[in-house]
Amino acid sequence: MITISDTASDKIKEMLAEEGGPELFLRIGVKEGGCSGFSYGMGFDDEQQAGDKALDMEGLKVVVDEDSIKYLNGLVIDFKESAMGGGFTIENPNASATCGCGSSFRTASDAGKPAAAGEC
What we know:
The protein is α+β, with helices and mostly antiparallel strands. The protein has helices at 6-19, 69-72, and strands at 2-4, 25-33, 37-45, 53-57, 60-64, 75-82, 85-91, 95-98, 104-107. The longest helix is centred in the first third of the chain and has 14 residues, at 6-19. The protein is globular.
């Protein structure tokens, strides 16, 4: 379903340790908006909701809400270091178009709800 590279997993675990709280987990989701129609959400949470799907990825708990699952099947999350720092990258095989900033997408069957011009 979702793949998180070893590099990204190590970085997420490091960030979780800095945040503290053994009940924290990574939540990944999709919401309408962004310049292409949908935008990714990725952050820490400590409350699971009804309908959430929990995944154990080599000791990393990842939770996805039921509405987002259909957009995230096959998703690959990586972490890249560069001279300017580092950041997470997302490759989504379901995306038929993405925006220049890489945080917004649409699928062939669902355009979502793009944000107003200039908002990414």
